Amino acid sequence: MARGKLADGSERFTQFALAAATLALQDSRYPLKPDARDLAVIMGCGMGGLPYFEQQADNFSRKGPGFVRPGSVPRIMPSAAAACISAQWKVRGPNLTLSTACSSSNHAIGVAMDLLRTGRCRAALCGGSESLLSPITFSAFDNRSRDVQPE
């Protein structure tokens, strides 16, 4: 798992993305320069930090608004992974997150290809990350599977 200040204060889906980006950069041997404007970060993510959102919603309902952590929004937003990747390596090129449910990662790859074809960037870190390990997600999918069962 990715380590460092960005990873430590982030959700699991962002940690996965940082770890994958580390491996991709190592494997590619891309000559990364500080403030790289020719490198894009394009990620797919359906829901981002839903488990953390659930914790903060519970704090809000049980204790009140003063107990919601101020850093909640940047931690749960689907674009947190792309933002942290760009911050970690000081990438200043295009930075996008596509949130199109289960097809988010495929769409990210397609957008990265378009950016490369049009010359907006010379290389792209692209893919997707998700980690919706939460009771609400499990319940929703479980209930949905019962809805589509033949009678």
Description:
This protein is mainly alpha-helical and 151 residues long. It has a single domain, classed as Peroxisomal Thiolase, Chain A, domain 1. The protein is built from seven helices and three strands; from the N terminus they run H-H-E-H-H-H-E-H-E-H.
What structural category do the secondary elements indicate?
mainly alpha
**Most strands sheet:** 3 strands, parallel
CATH class call: Alpha Beta
What's the β-strand tally? 3
Q: What is the fold named in CATH at topology level?
A: Peroxisomal Thiolase, Chain A, domain 1
Give the % helix. Answer: 40-55%
Oligomer: single chain
Strand order of the largest sheet: 2-1-3
Q: Nearest-angstrom radius of gyration?
A: 17 Å
Q: Please tell me what the overall shape is.
A: globular
Sheet-strand content, in percent, reads 5-15%
- The poorly predicted ranges are none
Number of helices: 7
SSE pattern? HHEHHHEHEH
Q: By CATH's scheme, which homologous superfamily applies?
A: Thiolase/Chalcone synthase
Global mean pLDDT: 91
CATH architecture: 3-Layer(aba) Sandwich
Separation, N- and C-terminal Cα atoms? 44 Å
Total of domains: 1
